[in-house]
Design brief:
The structure holds 2 protein chains of 2 kinds.
Chain A: H1 4-12, H2 20-36, E1 42-46, H3 51-64, E2 69-73, H4 81-94, E3 97-100, H5 104-111, H6 119-141, E4 143-145, H7 151-156, H8 177-187, H9 191-195, H10 208-212, H11 216-228, H12 233-238, H13 243-255
Parallel strand pairs in A: 1-2, 1-4, 2-3
Chain B: E1 2-7, H1 15-31, E2 36-38, H2 52-56, H3 63-69, E3 76-84, E4 90-98, E5 101-107, E6 132-133, E7 138-143, H4 151-158, E8 163-168, H5 181-197, E9 200-205, E10 207-210, E11 213-216, E12 220-222, E13 228-231, E14 238-243, H6 247-255, H7 258-261, H8 264-278
Chain lengths: 285, 281
């Protein structure tokens, strides 16, 4: 399957293009250091069969070697077989240790009490269930949890708080989706993963872009001009971005800010955690 | 004259560990016959200290500082600390140590407090930019952001510095299709400033990552003609050594006498006028 479409996108929007070797070097070097310095030698991550977790996997393998990376597949009974197969292909290709935990029993047991629960509740519950499994296995394998959320979805808030957004370290959180695709192609993520439509895989034929209403390429381009270049609306119009697109992504960014911060703490003391008690995680390391 | 850039990976707020790293580098440099060894900004402390700034701050006569200063025998050493002044103001400072004692201190003047930087929240601002004499010749020191203000190397050049030492901590950011934005900027600044003033510039950058922010290294030395003498590696610790012939300063300034022709009277006159205008006078 050709990835000419990706080459075309990067040609159309060269400002989204990254130096692949350098970016990979920064991400793998930093990933290695940030994990090692807190006393871990191994990492663990959830592998959905999608491109984001695949890229995190391939970067982790470069940083730690396949023998120190554990991939966990956590399907629900409605998850597509394609996703499972794609995850399997990445596991075989990288040679990492893997295990599969079917989350159906625990999800179904819970929703027996709430049979009318909305798809949103079910999707969030699944994402958080997967998080608790990863964190449990993290303790078992003494492996730090690696995140798989990209910059576009962090900005959109297209994820579950304390679910798929939870991790100890996220190597791809500063990459737009288009850049995730570019880097994935560079590190050798299988073509079947690279070329399919991104999906949260919560119900049949769900796609991110169908649900959000815009293509990732359009959103990445408008994000770049709005956030990286700080262009105003007039300049964005000139570049051909519509009010519909600008307003939609703007609304999402603002509405979902709560997903990007730690819980709000009500101030009483003179040194409140998160406000004026300020230290990096890497304190003393 | 043999100079080395100590491209190290400091541990955040772990001064004891950083002293060890310094001593190891100094030992290696001495073995290689290095006469001047330059560490990066805040080399003894780490960079993004936030509230740790208060905890790690050292007075000039503290044991931690003196441990490094006392090593400066047979080798001159420039290194970076959080300095606590007698009136308890903290400074992002560079120490030049020679013959076992502190010969000069530069307090960072331009404290970046925008975007990802928050230095003026913690540090007081240095008030001096002055060159000083060393056993090799006249030297000036600047710290990272100082170098982004052309007036800083300008003043040191006017103050007869032949060698400009820069202690820096530049984060890797602005990756683009061809390379790294911050690396491009630093290369441009160092080569142009060295050429403008016909002086050597030796700039040490750190490596390592603090909470996801990676410092890229690529420590650089440039000769008075603006040609790069040496680059340290990207992302890796290294002792980057090079030879420096100070007579090259004479040759560069004979070839392009920009320093000779500089009209400081005019600059002072015009700056005075501009200042008065800004004050609304």
């Amino acid at each position: 399957m050709s990835t000419q479409w990706l080459t075309d996108q990067l040609t159309e929007a060269p400002y989204l293009s990254l130096n692949e070797e350098l970016t990979t070097q920064i991400l793998t070097t930093a990933l290695h250091e940030e994990v090692n310095k807190v006393g871990f030698r191994r990492v663990i991550l959830g592998l959905s069969g999608g491109i984001d977790s695949a890229l995190s996997l391939y970067l982790a393998v470069r940083a730690f070697g396949a023998e120190n990376v554990i991939a966990v597949r956590m399907p629900y009974k409605q998850s597509s077989q394609n996703s499972l197969d794609d995850a399997e292909e990445a596991i075989l290709d990288t040679g990492v240790k893997s295990l599969t935990v079917d989350i159906t029993p625990q999800i179904d047991a819970y929703f027996e009490r709430f049979p009318d629960a909305s798809p949103l509740r079910r999707g969030n519950k699944m994402a958080r269930e997967r998080m608790t499994i990863l964190y449990d296995l993290s303790a078992h394998y003494e492996a730090l949890v690696v995140g798989t959320s990209n910059r576009t979805e962090l900005l959109l808030g297209y994820g579950t708080q304390y679910g798929d957004s939870a991790s100890a370290i996220n190597p791809i959180g500063d990459l737009y989706k288009t850049q995730v695709r570019q880097l994935s192609r560079y590190v050798g993520v299988p073509n079947s993963i690279l070329s399919k439509s991104p999906s949260a895989d919560l119900w049949e034929n769900q796609t991110d872009e169908g649900e959000i209403g815009f293509s990732y390429f359009d959103m990445d381009r408008v994000f770049y001009h709005m956030l990286d270049l700080k262009w105003d609306r007039r300049a964005l119009h000139k570049q051909g971005f519509s009010d519909t697109l600008i307003d939609a992504v703007n609304r999402r960014i603002i509405r979902n800010q709560f997903k990007r911060v730690m819980p709000v703490i009500l101030k009483v003391s003179n040194r409140t955690v998160g406000i004026d008690f300020r230290y990096l995680r890497d304190w003393g390391m | 004259m043999k100079v080395a850039l100590a491209q190290i990976r400091p541990h955040l707020g772990n001064v004891a560990k950083n002293i060890e790293i310094h001593k190891q580098m100094i030992k290696q440099a001495k073995e290689e016959g290095v006469e001047l060894l330059i560490f990066p900004e805040l080399s003894l402390m780490g960079y993004n200290l936030l509230d740790l700034t208060y905890d790690v701050a050292c007075t000039m006569d503290s044991e931690e500082v003196q441990e490094i200063v006392s090593e400066s025998k047979g080798i001159d050493i420039a290194f970076g600390i959080v300095e606590r002044s007698p009136d308890h103001i903290l400074y992002n400072s560079a120490i030049y140590a020679s013959y076992g004692s502190v010969q000069s201190v530069h307090r960072k003047v331009y404290l970046p407090t925008y975007g990802m930087f928050d230095e003026a929240r913690y540090f007081g601002r240095g008030e001096k930019i002055r060159a000083f004499d060393t056993r090799f010749g006249r030297v000036g020191m600047l710290i990272c952001e100082d170098m982004w203000h052309p007036s800083a190397p300008y003043l040191l050049a006017q103050d007869r510095a032949e060698l400009l030492i820069v202690l820096a901590n530049s984060p890797a950011r602005g990756v683009h299709a061809k390379g790294l934005g911050t690396q491009d900027s630093w290369d441009l600044i160092l080569t142009s400033q060295a050429q403008f003033y016909g002086m050597f510039i030796a700039c040490t950058q750190r490596v390592g990552t603090e909470d996801g922010v990676t410092f890229f290294g690529n420590s650089t030395a440039v000769d008075p003609f603006g040609d790069t003498l040496v680059h340290g590696p990207l992302f890796e610790e290294s002792l980057v050594t090079f030879d420096l012939d100070l007579d090259m300063v004479r040759r560069a300034r004979f070839t392009t006498p920009i320093l000779r022709d500089e009209n400081t009277d005019l600059v002072i006159r015009e700056l005075t006028r501009i200042q008065q205008h800004r004050r609304g006078e």
